[in-house]
Recover the amino acids of this structure.
């Protein structure tokens, strides 16, 4: 375990850069404060796990630097490369990678280190902390997926790590267990004053758990910010799609937004109002995004307030009831391929008689219309 | 029943296991984890005794270890006496013949350990040596028991190479299988039958141990 000086060191932030051309190209810049949870998101093959493995010292990038507090873990220029053993990172593998021949207690105790009888006492405390009291003598194959994950977390915490690294920790368990484990992680992290880095391809999971997000595309950090920033204000159409946004279109800026005055863009033969046009110039082709929750259905047959805000008429082409929510796809009038996707409560969908081929009008809230540089890349 | 030959066979099996065990663990662990481009060559060399006729292997050992050759002179200097037609000679032959039987099951056992488990040990603070000692060895243990059972059975039954390299010297190189051959040649069929049953039983038990073990992996 730690002495006083190490306790001081564990309350420090993680700052890392990684660059390399191959075999997996990387151009990463990230930081994660003590007590903060940073989610690395991106599509499969974006290099998320490679970044996490590089932080742990299991692979090394050609260039870059990894610093935790005052400790330099890796500095390619200075030829510093601490081994995984020296880095004091807690790593939870996607498949948990528990030691199959050891009990839950010994899986954790072996990571505590030192004399085994003393290590076992600490291991039992850690297992109790992850709600595994009473299961200490079981081997991994006698534990459920969720229980195995808890052992993996207890083992990762056993070294009193300076950084906790989680590689898709919820992907190997069922939906119900996943929700419970997420809640447990939220509780656990309150007591951990260390940077936590979570790799996931599940945007909802990242948004629910993370304080900040790093979006990785083809090994490159393309955006870092709060989950809300990354989702509602992505810098490119590609990032918007990674964030699960489907309402991404192309338009042309016709007026620049100023304080107190909205900008405008032309789209689908009409003009849309956008509160924030950023650095774009008049005449610029741009991608733009409207988040699904900022698409408001006009009540059919009964005019309501706010209908003058970016009204877009169209025809319902898909209605999928998902329990309390209903997912609706509307094809914009005068087009065949421009589809707006949004959700509304199922009772509202019923009341408005939303069925295939129904003619409806929606408003796109001008505050949420987000313009991005460049056109959408397919 | 030729008790001298039975004792010699057991002695040969014992020393083969003792000497081949550590060598095979190191070689199997290396083969299981290396990314070396020489791996296929080494694997082919290890498997060679499995497919070569024992007489061919015996011939090369006989020629290679003959007094006057470089290897023969070195081997003679190392053991402080003649190598061919001695216990040392058949032990050396036994070690070479048994390489695939020892290394293959161990290699498979080490290969069955997921790389994540090794990495989890490293990120848990275990040194490479501790990872090997406390994680990999216990996990590969059933493979090692299988390998040694196979080596024991195979050593007790080995005939051709031992006859070529060691001849048929009672108390020195006459093993159980050679003694069976000798008994049949001399029409002592009853002796041969007893010894054959013993070898059959030992081989069966060795295979049984292997299979019971494989269920534990």
């Amino acid at each position: 375990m730690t002495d006083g000086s190490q306790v001081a060191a564990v309350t420090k932030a993680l700052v890392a850069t990684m660059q390399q051309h191959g075999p997996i190209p990387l151009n990463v810049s990230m930081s994660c404060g003590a007590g903060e949870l940073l989610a690395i998101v991106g599509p499969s093959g974006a290099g998320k796990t490679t970044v996490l493995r590089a932080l742990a010292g299991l692979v090394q990038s050609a260039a870059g630097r990894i610093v935790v507090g005052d400790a330099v873990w890796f500095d390619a220029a200075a030829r510093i490369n601490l081994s995984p053993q020296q880095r004091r990172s807690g790593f939870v593998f996607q498949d948990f990678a528990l030691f199959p021949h050891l009990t839950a207690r010994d899986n954790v105790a072996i990571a505590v280190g030192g004399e085994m009888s003393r290590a076992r006492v600490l291991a039992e405390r850690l297992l109790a902390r992850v709600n595994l009291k009473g299961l200490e003598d079981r081997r991994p194959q006698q534990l459920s997926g969720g229980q195995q994950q808890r052992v993996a977390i207890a083992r990762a915490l056993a070294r009193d790590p300076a950084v906790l690294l989680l590689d898709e920790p919820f992907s190997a368990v069922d939906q119900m267990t996943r929700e419970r484990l997420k809640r447990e992680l939220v509780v656990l992290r309150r007591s951990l004053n260390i940077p936590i880095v979570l790799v996931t391809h599940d945007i909802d999971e990242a948004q629910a758990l993370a304080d900040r997000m790093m979006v990785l595309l083809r090994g490159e950090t393309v955006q870092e910010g709060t989950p809300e920033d990354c989702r509602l204000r992505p810098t490119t159409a590609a990032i918007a799609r990674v964030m699960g946004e489907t309402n991404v279109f192309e338009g042309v800026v016709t007026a620049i937004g100023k304080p107190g005055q909205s900008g405008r863009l032309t789209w689908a033969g009409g003009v849309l109002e956008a509160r924030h046009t950023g650095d774009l110039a008049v005449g610029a082709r741009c991608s733009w995004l409207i988040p699904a929750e900022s698409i408001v259905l006009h009540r059919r047959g009964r005019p309501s307030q706010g209908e003058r805000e970016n009204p877009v008429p169209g025809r319902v082409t898909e209605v999928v009831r998902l329990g309390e929510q209903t997912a609706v796809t509307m094809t914009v009038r005068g087009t065949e391929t421009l589809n707006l996707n949004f959700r509304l409560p199922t009772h509202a969908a019923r009341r408005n008689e939303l069925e295939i081929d129904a003619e409806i009008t929606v408003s796109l809230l001008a505050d949420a219309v987000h313009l991005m540089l460049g056109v959408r890349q397919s | 029943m030729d008790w001298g030959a039975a004792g010699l066979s057991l002695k040969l099996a014992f020393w083969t296991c003792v000497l081949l065990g550590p060598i095979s663990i190191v070689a199997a662990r290396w083969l299981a984890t290396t990314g070396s481009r020489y791996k296929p060559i080494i694997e082919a060399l290890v498997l060679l005794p499995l497919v070569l006729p024992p007489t061919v292997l015996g011939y090369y050992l006989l020629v290679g270890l003959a007094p006057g050759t470089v290897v023969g002179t070195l081997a003679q200097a190392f053991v402080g006496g003649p190598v061919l037609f001695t216990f040392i000679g058949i032990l050396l032959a036994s070690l070479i013949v048994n390489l695939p039987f020892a290394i293959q099951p161990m290699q498979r056992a080490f290969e069955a350990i997921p790389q994540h488990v090794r990495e989890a040990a490293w990120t848990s603070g275990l040194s490479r040596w501790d990872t090997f000692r406390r994680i990999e060895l216990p996990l590969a243990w059933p493979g090692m028991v299988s390998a040694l059972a196979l080596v024991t059975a195979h050593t007790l039954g080995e005939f051709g190479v031992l006859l070529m390299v060691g001849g048929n010297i009672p108390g020195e190189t006459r093993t159980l299988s050679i003694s069976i051959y000798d008994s049949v040649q001399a029409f002592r069929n009853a002796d041969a039958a007893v010894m054959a049953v013993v070898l059959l039983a030992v081989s069966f038990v060795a295979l049984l141990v292997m299979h019971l073990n494989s269920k534990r992996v």
About this structure: Chain A is about 25% helix and 30% strand. Chain A touches chain B through 25 residues (CB under 8 Å). The CA atoms of residues 172 and 351 of chain A lie 40 Å apart. The first strand of chain A starts at residue 14 and ends at 20.
